[in-house]
Design a protein that fits this description.
The chain has helices spanning 16-23, 66-69, 92-105, 113-126, 202-206, 209-217, 263-271, 286-294, 337-350; strands at 35-42, 46-54, 72-74, 77-81, 87-90, 138-147, 159-169, 180-184, 222-226, 234-237, 241-246, 250-253, 278-281, 298-305, 309-318, 328-330, 361-363. The chain has 365 residues and is an alpha+beta fold. The chain has 2 domains: 16-169, D-amino Acid Aminotransferase, Chain A, domain 1 (2-Layer Sandwich); 180-350, D-amino Acid Aminotransferase, Chain A, domain 2, CATH 3.20.10. Strands 8, 9, 10, 11, 12, 13, 14, 15 and 16 form a 9-stranded mixed beta sheet that branches. Helix 3 packs across helix 4. The structure holds pyridoxal-5'-phosphate (PLP) and 2-OXO-4-methylpentanoic acid.
Length: 365
């Protein structure tokens, strides 16, 4: 396929007054822009008909395979408007490569990296008026691939759609960047060996919804999943990776394998040495975690991801009714120095307020 996503002429666009009204209070993932990118794939012809057209419903037959067997993968990234009006992406090539890995795991066709970048950049240009100007607000971009073929036999689809939609967004948590509590589930699992934990596929999120509901019922902002076999090894949160800071300046996070290899996670690991933090990506048990929080060896913890950026964690609550006071582990420094410093460094790179030695940002407009 050609990597180009040409703009379909004549798409009706919102007035600047309508956009301004939405941008006054965008929330997260509630409103969608005027355009979407799309390309269609068939087993015979490959990717074709790539374009930026109107944001409109798909024409999907009720027999469409994604509705039955959830053959679907997605990505999440943001467009940032800087003080000078220019608009930038953050490490989008890593999203492109992760979408390829996710697609391979779900036996969907891989979209070439250049096509991914062209689709995302084309959409941001078409909907430039929707990129917020206020600090901490972005245009959230959601690329996805799904099985559109009407067929109920269980096999990989021979017709597939790739699309990108965009949603102007503020903070993911309604509480902004205030510390959240985390519900540690020992009854639900997100991923197991050989499963789809490392892929960004919709099914992972569907299977986590009940655990997220349980977390919310206990006042927690996210659920923490542990390994499926023993419920002892820390994995990740419902929609974010998790980090711990120790009093002797180590930065701990679970090793990859069954978890999503977050781009924010990777960036935080790469930034850690700037702050004198030694990164350690390795297995972390609940036993170690509880003991280290109680003894103040672990002083800070945070969630990180594209949507969450870096959100501090106040407490871990364990779903063990018999544990009494031990069912809770509260961080000594929930708004700790290291969490704040890493967050500041990350957002300053994203908004072009700090040097970007790794060349992580990419100008679109
Ligand atoms: N883990 C899960 C389950 C996620 O949904 C996300 C969000 O995308 C992440 C981790 C963080 O990934 P990233 O930093 O690439 O957004
Ligand atoms: C993201 O951070 O981009 C995600 O996909 C996670 C979700 C909580 C929106």
């Amino acid at each position: 396929m050609s990597a180009a996503f040409p703009l379909v002429p004549g798409v009706a666009v919102s007035s600047s007054a309508e956009i301004a009204q939405i941008l006054a209070n965008p929330g997260f993932g509630v409103y969608f822009t005027d355009h979407m990118a799309q390309a269609d794939w068939t087993a015979e012809a490959g990717w074709q008909d790539s374009r930026i057209g109107p944001y409109e419903p798909f024409s999907l037959p009720p027999g469409g395979a994604v509705l039955h067997y959830a053959q679907e993968v997605f990505e999440g990234l943001k467009a940032y408007r800087r003080a000078d009006g220019s608009v930038w992406l953050f490490r989008p090539e890593l999203n492109a490569r992760r979408l390829i890995r996710s697609a391979e795991r779900m036996d969907l066709p891989a979209l070439p990296e250049e096509a991914f970048l062209a689709s995302v950049e084309g959409l941001v240009r078409a909907d430039a008026a929707w990129v917020p100007e206020r600090d901490e607000e972005t245009l959230y971009l959601r690329p996805f691939i799904f099985a559109s073929e009407a067929f109920l036999g269980v096999r990989s689809a021979r017709q597939v759609v790739y699309a990108v939609v965009a949603s102007p967004s503020g903070a993911y948590f309604a509480s902004g960047f205030r510390p959240i509590d985390i519900w540690v589930t020992s009854s639900f699992s997100r991923a197991g060996a050989g499963g789809t934990g490392a892929a960004k596929c919709g099914g992972n999120y569907a299977s986590g919804l009940l655990a997220s509901k349980e977390a919310a019922a206990h006042g927690c902002g996210q659920v923490l999943f542990t390994d499926a076999a023993e419920h002892e090894w820390v994995e990740e949160l419902g929609g974010m990776n998790v980090f711990f800071v120790t009093s002797d300046r180590r930065l701990l996070t679970p090793a990859v394998g069954n978890i999503l290899e977050g781009i924010t996670r990777q960036s935080v690991l790469e930034l850690a040495p700037e702050f004198g933090l030694a990164p350690e990506a390795r297995p972390i048990s609940l036993t170690e975690l509880k003991a280290a929080i109680w003894s103040r060896d672990i002083t800070e913890a945070f969630a990180c991801g594209t949507a969450a950026v870096i959100t501090p964690i106040a407490r871990f609550l364990f779903d063990d009714e018999s544990a009494g006071a031990e069912a809770e582990a509260a961080l000594a420094e929930p708004q700790g120095e290291m969490t704040q410093a890493l967050r500041r460094r990350l957002v300053d790179i994203q908004w072009g307020r700090a040097s970007d030695p790794g060349g992580w940002t990419r100008r679109v407009i």
